[in-house]
Design a protein that fits this description.
alpha/beta, 4 domains, ten-stranded mixed sheet, six-stranded parallel sheet, 28 helices, 28 strands
């Protein structure tokens, strides 16, 4: 029996408590500890049951408790004070970064398949989503004109529980959006705003929910509505659920539906930021819109879209980049390609590394790279890896010229720093450290924190972590029908004063959770040292189809349940933002063992660092640029060596790991002064906060995106859109002419005035003659390309210098000259090359055109 009408029943809050709704419906509470303290003190047990969801919490709070709180003047004063803080936060003036001329929220649109904003919005699985959530929070603190788009998953990512023998099992609780801090977007008539799009000749409908993240609006699309057939309702059922076809449908909805939803709400972004390849179809939809509504050709629309798009790639693992077969793409995109005016083969070429290979699958990362002029990896090392990984998209270029830069990730410090540590920062960094965009000035103040206060605060956090782990372990044991003696063990597990090492992450094979288990006897010796006790806390999930990852979890659980490890090693089920918070705040060491160079960044170590936790990590991701060679901020497993033999690499690095633990980490932790303080350890904590805190935070990261990508992309859009998009049309026509004539360019008579030997700093002058094949001199840029050579005669590094046109020959060739001055000794070489040049072309490499002498 179906209901005739649906309605919601909500609690009747006394009028004096109505401000609680304002606090509940803005995820500002996820980084404002005063708000969460208000809710938890209203009813601590119910707050924990709600999984820190203030909407569910208020909806389930007994009416008599609400009435009592409404009569408590001290409580009301506190609510009013926090509400005024939120109102003041919203009143802050526009960002000093000045992206675009408008102060509205629609200049930049950020697209991501997942968002880790808070525990109470379970639409994330791991690091990608957490990074997206932190990006929005810093954009809010910095008051950037940004909106975000994602999907509203009915079941989100799976919840984890383990059998008695440690095998992972998955469950998928259903999210009730009415009980989440979400608001349904409605049209002018008050009905839910609904967008529609064509999927295989059928109409797919989606409604839109809004989550307020401070000053930022996050719009989430939901297909689980009555207008859709059953299979379409499943599109937003589960994050990363189903097979490849479901993934394609989700990405169709995210990219194409996301752009449609923004337009339906009157938001027309100048810049689109695609966070990972999942959202690459947003670029295609923007092209279609500009063609349909403004009469642009595909080429002109593509130039406009690419010049105002940003793409961030996150994974150096090939399997992490979505690829779809030509037949699957044909089933969904034949009609769409026709709307773009493209033959389907030409359409497929947009997503192929080799456009001529008709057997190659369609890759979302390649599509995003082609539809963006601002591409970046998420650490310096990952930028280099990405350039090598995607060099086939620009086959004529040396790897170092592949147009993929690096903007290293950061973390939103106010979200991840413990309340106790935040209060310490308030005293010594000043009350504005949460929003201050000058990260370096704030970082210098870490030095002023007294050693004893920093250490005592950290000890309290370790004690809190131990209490949390014991309680969680009891819950796990009771849930699987454990015995009484197991519950007694849970009450005594871990030592609040012992050196505590945390290892928590996704259990992908390349993250090598097994590295610690390679020499079990050595590990048990470390665990069994009663004079200098060491303990481990593990957490993390394996993908439901990753049986190898599940076996790794099982081996760790076996260690934790063994007689030798029972009290000093624990595996906590169902890793999420709450468990992560306790661990990164309360551990002493954060252990990370990925196989270099497969860790794109690894932000969990940053979260630990801002809480005074020291990192012990492979020289990979962010740690490759954060680590100091004197071990002053933590320890590195190796120094960037890369191995052909992975088994040998595991052996070598497991030995290094044990040596560091036995000879450095443990002795330093237990080296205590007369007053009981581990002063060498505390110095490392302060050095890490001072050196790394100002750099590896999302305020710095978002500022980099604003300065390096959003602002130039927005300026690009404005220039190309002038005069009814005439510059965009002109740029497209210029590019077509360039492509036609480029193949006949020639370089001859390259002459250097160099002798066989020159001195350091002595100028090397080179001349060359160029046949431009009808192109104007201003259409090309002739460069001198020089640098030291390696043993096989190829460039190990390179320097480029623009050559100047000096005249022309009698037969119409252009003459150029230029010079460079080597600043090092050694064997050098040079050559000459030609690149495209246009005042509206930010990066000449992006077109993939180059001509070498």
């Amino acid at each position: 029996m179906q209901p005739l009408q649906v309605y919601s029943v909500i609690p009747r809050l006394p009028e004096s408590l109505n401000p609680l709704w304002d606090l509940a419906y803005n995820f500002w509470f996820s980084w404002n500890h005063e708000i969460t303290e208000i809710f938890s003190q209203m009813d601590f047990a119910l707050w924990e049951r709600s999984r820190h969801n203030p909407v569910w919490f208020l909806n389930h709070l007994p009416q008599e408790r609400l009435e009592a709180l409404a009569q408590d003047p001290f409580f009301l004063d506190r609510v009013q004070a926090v509400l005024e803080s939120l109102q003041n936060y919203h009143r802050k003036s526009a960002s000093p970064l000045h992206i675009g001329e408008e102060n509205g929220n629609g200049v930049v649109a950020y697209f991501s398949a997942e968002y880790g904003v808070a525990l109470s919005l379970p639409v994330y699985s791991g690091g990608l989503g957490i990074l997206a959530g932190d990006h929005l929070k810093s954009a809010s603190d910095l008051n950037l004109p940004l909106v975000a788009v994602g999907l509203c998953y009915q079941r989100g990512y799976f919840r984890q529980n383990l059998t008695r023998d440690g095998w992972q099992q998955e469950r998928y609780p259903t999210n009730d959006f009415e009980q989440l801090p979400l608001t349904l977007i409605r049209d002018d008539g008050g009905s839910p705003l609904t967008i529609s799009l064509q999927l295989q000749g059928r109409t797919l409908y989606a409604r839109v929910w809004r989550a307020l993240v401070g000053r930022i609006s996050l719009f989430l699309l939901d297909t689980n509505i009555a207008e859709n057939p059953a299979d379409f309702r499943e599109i937003t059922a589960q994050l990363y659920g189903g097979g490849l076809e479901m993934r394609l449908r989700q990405e169709f909805l995210l990219g194409i539906g996301g752009v449609k939803a923004l337009h339906a709400m009157g938001i027309e972004p100048k810049v689109v930021h695609m966070n990972e390849g999942h959202s690459a179809f947003a670029g295609l939809e923007r092209i279609r819109v500009f063609m349909k509504h403004y009469g642009l050709s595909f080429e002109a629309a593509m130039e406009l879209v690419a010049s105002s798009s940003v793409f961030t790639t996150h994974t150096p693992v090939p399997a992490g980049n979505d690829r779809f077969s030509p037949s699957l793409m044909e089933a969904y995109f034949v009609e769409y390609a026709r709307e773009l005016g493209l033959a389907f083969k030409v359409f497929l070429a947009l997503g192929r590394e080799d456009p001529r290979d008709e057997a190659e699958q369609f890759c979302m990362t390649v599509l995003a790279l082609r539809l963006s002029r601002f591409n970046n990896g998420v650490s310096k090392l990952h930028g280099r890896v990405s350039r090598d990984m995607w060099k086939r998209v620009w086959p004529q270029y040396p790897v170092e010229d592949v147009p993929i830069e690096a903007i290293t990730n950061g973390i939103h410090v106010p979200t991840w720093v413990a309340p106790d540590m935040a209060y310490l920062f308030d005293r010594y960094l000043g009350g504005n450290w949460r929003e201050d965009p000058d990260c370096e000035r704030v970082g210098e103040k870490y030095k002023s924190i007294p050693e004893v206060e920093l250490w005592r605060t950290h000890e309290r956090l370790r004690e809190r972590l131990v209490g949390f782990v014991r309680a969680r372990l009891r819950e796990q044991i009771m849930a699987r029908g454990g015995r009484n003696w197991e519950l007694q063990v849970a009450d005594d597990v871990l030592n609040p004063q012992a050196l505590t090492i945390g290892f928590a992450r996704r259990f992908a094979t390349y993250k090598r959770a097994y590295l610690l288990l390679r020499e079990k006897d050595r590990l048990l010796e470390i665990l069994g040292n009663s004079q200098r006790p060491v303990q481990f806390i593990f957490a993390g999930k394996a993908h439901p189809q990753d049986n190898e990852g599940k076996k790794l979890i099982q081996k760790l659980v076996e260690l934790c349940q063994s007689e030798a490890g029972r009290y000093s090693a624990v595996f906590i089920e169902d890793y999420d933002m709450e468990i992560a918070s306790y661990m990164i705040q309360g551990c002493d060491v954060w252990l990370n063992t990925p196989r270099r160079p497969l860790e794109a960044c690894g932000t969990s170590g940053m979260k630990a660092m801002v809480n005074g936790v020291l990192n012990l990590s492979t020289f990979d991701g962010w740690w490759a640029e954060a680590y100091k060679a004197d071990n002053s901020v933590g320890w590195s497993i190796g120094h960037g060596e890369e191995y052909q033999d992975s088994e040998y690499q595991d052996f070598v690095e497991s030995q290094i790991l044990y040596n560091i633990l036995e000879k450095d980490v443990v002795p330093t932790f237990y080296d205590r002064s007369h007053g009981g303080l581990p002063r060498r350890w505390i110095k490392k904590m302060k050095d890490a906060l001072t050196c790394l805190g100002p750099v590896f935070n999302s305020h710095r990261m978002v500022e980099e995106y604003a300065n390096k990508t959003y602002t130039p992309a927005c300026s690009n859009f404005a220039r190309l859109a002038e005069n009814q998009f005439e510059p965009a049309k002109g740029l497209a026509a210029w590019r077509m002419d360039l492509m036609t004539k480029w193949g006949e360019l020639r370089i001859r008579n390259v002459v250097a005035d160099a002798r066989a030997e020159i001195f350091v700093g002595e100028p090397l002058r080179v001349t060359a003659e160029v046949y431009a094949n009808g192109l104007r001199p201003e259409d090309i840029q002739v460069e001198l390309y020089t640098g030291p050579l390696d043993q096989v005669g190829t460039f190990s590094k390179r320097t480029t210098a623009v050559m100047t046109k000096t005249g022309s020959t009698s037969d119409g060739w252009l003459t150029y000259s230029g010079e460079v001055s080597p600043d090092l000794t050694g064997k050098f070489g040079f050559t000459v090359r030609i690149l495209p040049h246009h005042p509206l072309l930010l990066d000449p490499h992006s077109l993939g055109l180059i001509h070498w002498a």
